[in-house]
Design goal:
Layout (H helix, E strand, L loop, with lengths): L3 E3 L10 E2 L36 E6 L1 E2 L10 E18 L8 E9 L9 E3 L13 H4 L5 E2 L3 E15 L2 E7 L2 E7 L8 E6 L17 E3 L2 E2 L12 H8 L11 E2 L4 H11 L6 H5 L9 E2 L1 H4 L10 E3 L5 E6 L11 H15 L9 E3 L5 E3 L21 E6 L10 H17 L7 E5 L11 E5 L1 E3 L11 H4 L2 H11 L3
Parallel strand pairs: 18-21, 18-24, 19-21
Antiparallel strand pairs: 1-17, 2-13, 3-12, 4-5, 5-8, 5-9, 5-12, 6-7, 6-9, 10-11, 13-14, 15-16, 19-20, 22-23
Helix pairs in contact: 7-9
Length: 480
């Protein structure tokens, strides 16, 4: 598999940037960004809106048994730590499996109350870049559990317990069954993620306006009303300037007529006469941008990587648990982003979009929400697809109706940009996995669950059961 590479959009920071005079319907065709990247703009010393950066504490696990045998339990006893809100366990070899269970207990900051033992999802290798890609082959990539959101905490205890494997052999005295625990992966570490804080004010949400924008936000706004936009912040935001001003925290919703006009503008020269006459695209939903949820653009890899098209959407659950408020969703996403990049060694957050329990939609991997961005979400099927993660764990808990509807609204629009029918089938070529061999053409639902491309529990039984409803609703939004 080979992604198309485009470097971040270049913007000259020394001069004010004039945005298009026309509304989104007349925006120019979206294309991968040019190669130049602007210089970093320093924040004004008086800016009051600067966010507090996040951080990661990485603590090596040690044997909890006296004999320190290879198959012995590892962990950390209760200890005080700096504040954190998300936790996970990583290890050196991304191809090594953790045969066993990982559990954590955390102490809530402020109250001093300890939680009970909580399980971490240990089988998370199916989320990631495809085999053979540069992102997967990077020496930085590590094996990991799924992360768990625990809220602001300042104490932790962890244990990783290997699962004993049984083996039966025929002996002179008859069958003999032996039990032995396989060794745990090498280099086990506990990752404690503090998401930091998001800027208190940004540039406004809305369509492009006939006004100039500086690296600190639109002309006319208070000088301290937006935090300084670094080179990579500008690049990530500029990838969406067909839809919203540079520095916007959100891309506004459009009605059907406006969305159809925008499609004709974005895909000039690419649409058949039939699609021009009947576009089959859902109204564009409101999308919180990376700047809106407070992404630290300095963490990700500089370049954007694209594939050719978007033929399918894979739905996931983040497996981070359901104990978050909708107001905390940006913090949860910043934590996942930091865990994917700093702890697991990925180039950016793996998902193309994220959805919270209240139905808000968030931009994921950088590169522009209208474009075919190469993600790291469905091992073997990241090419020509997109990944949508619903924040939460849905093995037994039911997803909210708002979240399911958000999946439908998002897919009706994004798949419609590429002419895909949410109720239809499509073919994707496997990049390799535990269900389909590399190179095999696989027939899949246009809206599929992660488990359709890889033998995994994701997106959870309860969310997977709602995908039929999401397909029908998305098709209705497209006017089918």
């Amino acid at each position: 598999m080979r992604g198309l590479l485009a470097s971040s959009i270049g913007v000259t920071c020394a001069a004010a940037l004039a945005l298009p005079l026309t509304p989104p319907a007349a925006a120019t065709t979206a294309r991968p960004a040019p190669t130049a990247e602007p210089t970093v703009v320093a924040a004004p010393a008086t800016s009051p809106a600067a966010p507090l950066p996040g951080s990661t504490q990485s603590l090596p696990l040690t044997s909890l048994a006296r004999d320190r045998a290879p198959g012995a339990e590892q962990g950390l006893p209760r200890r005080d730590v700096r504040p954190f809100s998300l936790v996970g366990v990583v290890w050196d070899d991304p191809d090594a499996e953790l045969h066993g269970g990982a559990q954590v207990r955390t102490r809530a900051a402020g109250t001093g109350t300890w939680s009970g033992w909580q399980d971490l999802e240990t089988h998370s290798a199916e989320h990631g870049a495809d085999p053979g890609t540069s992102e997967r082959a990077s020496h930085r990539v590590r094996g990991a559990t799924a992360p768990l959101w625990v809220g602001e905490s300042d104490g932790v205890e962890v244990r990783v317990i290997p699962t004993a494997a049984t083996r039966t052999e025929d002996t002179a005295r008859g069958p003999l069954t032996a039990s032995a625990a396989p060794p745990l992966p090498k280099g086990l570490r506990l990752e404690l993620v503090d998401p930091g804080t998001e800027p208190s004010a940004h540039a406004p949400v809305g369509p492009p306006r006939s006004r100039a924008v500086t690296p600190w936000g639109p002309v006319g706004a208070p000088r301290g009303a937006a935090t300084a936009m670094t080179a990579r912040t500008i690049a990530a935001s500029a990838a969406n300037t067909d839809l919203a001003p540079l520095g916007a925290t959100g891309i506004p919703a459009l009605d059907r007529a406006g969305t159809e006009r925008e499609l004709l503008s974005l895909r000039q020269g690419e649409l058949t006469e039939r699609r021009q006459a009947k576009p089959y695209i859902g109204p564009r939903p409101r999308i919180v941008t990376r700047r809106g949820w407070g992404a630290d653009e300095s963490m990700r890899e500089k370049a954007f990587r694209y594939t050719n098209t978007v033929k399918a959407a894979f739905v996931h659950h983040s497996a981070t648990g359901n104990n978050y408020k909708c107001s905390q969703a940006p913090s949860v996403i910043r934590s996942i982003y930091r865990y994917h990049v700093k702890s697991m060694g990925w180039r950016d957050i793996g998902y193309n979009f994220l959805v919270d329990k209240c139905g808000s939609i968030y931009e994921g991997r950088a590169g522009g929400v209208t474009k075919a961005i190469l993600g790291a979400h469905t091992l073997g099927f990241n090419t020509n697809s997109m990944g949508i993660a619903v924040l939460g764990t849905f093995s037994t808990a039911k997803p909210s109706a708002a979240a399911v509807n958000a999946i439908a609204r998002l897919t009706a629009w994004k798949l419609g940009l590429f002419g895909a029918n949410p109720r239809g089938k499509t073919y994707l070529k496997s990049g390799g996995g535990n269900l389909y061999a590399k190179g095999k053409n696989v027939r899949l639902n246009v809206i599929s669950g992660h488990r359709d491309g890889f033998a995994t529990e994701c997106p959870g039984r309860q969310l997977y059961g709602k995908l039929g409803s999401a397909r029908s609703t998305a098709a209705r939004y497209q006017g089918r």
